[in-house]
Write a structure and sequence with these properties.
- The complex is a heterodimer.
- Chain A is an all-alpha fold.
- Chain A has one domain: Up-down Bundle (Ferritin).
- Chain A contains seven helices and no strands.
- In chain A, α1 runs antiparallel to α2, α4 runs antiparallel to α5 and α4 runs parallel beside α7.
- By secondary structure, chain B is an all-alpha fold.
- Chain B has one domain: Non-ribosomal Peptide Synthetase Peptidyl Carrier Protein, Chain A.
- In chain B, 60% of the residues lie in helices and 0% in strands.
- Chain B is built from four helices and no strands.
- Classes of the chains: A mainly alpha, B mainly alpha.
- Chains A and B meet through α1, α3 and α4 of A and α3 of B.
Chain lengths: 185, 77
Amino acid sequence: MIDDNDLWILSYYRISEISGALFFGRLARSLKPGPIQHDMTKHFSDEALHAWYWTECIEKLGGKPRKLLEAYQDQYLSAAGMPANLMEVLSLTQVFERRVINQYARHSQVPNLPVEILETLQKIMVDEKWHIQWIGDALRDLVPEFGKEVLEQTMKRYWQADQEVYEKTLQEHEDRIAHLIQKRS
Amino acid sequence: MKEKVREKIAAFLNQPPASIQDDAILTTLVPESFLLVELVIELQEEFGVRLMQDDLRDVKTVNDLTAVVERNLQAKE
């Protein structure tokens, strides 16, 4: 049976993937057709699938997903302020996706991790790498419109917000991973 | 322009335009932050303007948002 710590972490991943799917799904609907809308459509379908993977994984481990009120994304928005345009949304997402992939990679290093969790993390990380790639490409394509300097300043601002979120709230996630490592070593 | 922005906000919220008051607080109309991001981006797509985070720093009401869109449109022309 899944323990409370695992259940909290996997439920947190799950709600964050659901939030990502809903946000990018709605945003893709607002955008005019083009390369960014094309890749964003794949992005939100990935996130929806990841939410399903976590739901399935929790159930295979004998648990039921916990209803959590906040996802990763809510914390980022609260620290970074509301992005106002596509470039700012993509910059914030780029920073956020890098943090997520690092968290997933760290989780996959936990010794004696149940195979269901390890396989789910590995499947999702493949998609997350593509998310970072397409967003990087899209941001490069937006340089002529916004300017390199504005883009760099925006990224810098969001990296600072990422540190703030990490120090304030994601530390709980980190502590729970550390607990898993300790327990399973 | 003011009416067009109000119509767009109303359509986004699935409400009649007359129900959208000028002094309505945006975070009350659209309590979920991600929906507010979506609304702002949809306005930009619709009116062909580009807003930055700094432009929205002091935006609190429907009137404030309309004024920012108008200013950006004028600057573009």
